[in-house]
Amino acid sequence: MWGLPSRFNPGCCAVHALVVLAGSIEIQALDVGDVLPVIRTLPAPVSITEGMRLTYHSTVATVPESAFSNWDILSDPDDYTRPSGQGYTQVDVVGITDQASALRVQAWQFYNYTGPVVPLFGSDACLVGYAGGGDWYVHPAALATIESMTGPGLTILRMPHQVGDRVFDAIRIQSEDDKSRLVTAYDLETGYLIFKSSALKGEKGITLTRLAFVGVRTLQFPWFGGSLPGWVTPGRKLRYDGYSTTTVIGSNPLVLPLTADVEILNPSDNWFLYQQTTTQGSLPGLPPTVDHRTLISGIHQLGGLCLPSAALKNLIEGQRIDFDETTGAMSEVLRVGTGANGRTSVTMKMTVGTVAWSEASYDVITGAATQLRTYDGPSPLYYTLTEVNLDELPPDIPALPSAPRLTIVHHPGDHTVTMSCLTEIGRLLTLLSSNDGCRTWTPVADCIDRRCDGQPFVYTIGSGTRSIFYRVQVR
User: Fold this and answer.
1) 87, 212 in Cβ contact below 8 A?
2) 13-218 has which CATH code?
């Protein structure tokens, strides 16, 4: 999501552990690598690729304490109580390496339960975990090693699991103690988290939280396959200055200074982490509000601190970038022209109806985000506008040639695997398979050294091959 927080909710960037913020919903998770050490050495499954988005519906409700012992209420709390809040959580895969995956988690909330749905600006979080899995997915090879069991405090079952109108062949994990109950389910074929629900005892009853899988899609942005600008190096610092204005109908606007100091931490091929310190001024006599967060920016996402310069030069005014059917968010090129600093600039805007929008302007030469603006107005009684501007452009350092970017996508519906390597025409792809839990890999006979020609290559794997896993080698 573009822009800086208009609500100062805590974000997080964790390695192998995560707290998911979905509106007022908080679901905690443990390090999956401690429970399944095998994921620490596995590559990302074919179902997880850069630029894909997982979407979940999230709800929270409070029920009487007498409901604590009812496991059915965890499976489908909507059957027992109307949630007091609901929204969506979207997980974008920003980067994949042999050892790690970099995810961006964004929360959306229904303002008055039925709508409109609005992004929680400032609530986005980042997660860097094992390539083989974590809280949002687990490699199917790792799930295959989990044994079914029933015991005190823990039950593990392989069973059909219905989420909405879909029935998954899933592994369901139930755990409990005196104060909490937790149900987690993963799809055995793709490894996706498809369901998570918890019941926590509190002073006012039982708090129920729930995440339910909505779907997955692959994003398609014009800058995919590009390179990070050359100035994106460890220790690079940027500073943004501006203001935050809150307007309540019938009152004078409250205008407060807003600054953001950014330091780039450890760039990868096409994504990087950065430390952001945001300072918002307060009323006279009160201390400012300071927010420290570690965030993520990269090629395989909307917005961010920078984009490939070559792609920016090819964007045209009015060009549609993306539309998300779940949230209704529309992203497009708002304008192309001369910016406030006298240089050519491209401004992109994400709009959610009339209730929220965000804008990001980019310098075409350096690819740096020069202005970030957000409007948050879900209520007819008030709205908040933020705007910050980059103090000084980074130097124009040419980007290094992009590393080969390989994609491999599994399509369970028609039992196919699609492979492509669009950044290095002429490179050779070899499809490898494993039937021993990814310990050894063997080339597939008719998929050895297939030459990249700019078009995806589709291989049919057939049905009944659930225990076989695939990866691709490029040379």
Assistant:
1) no
2) 2.40.360
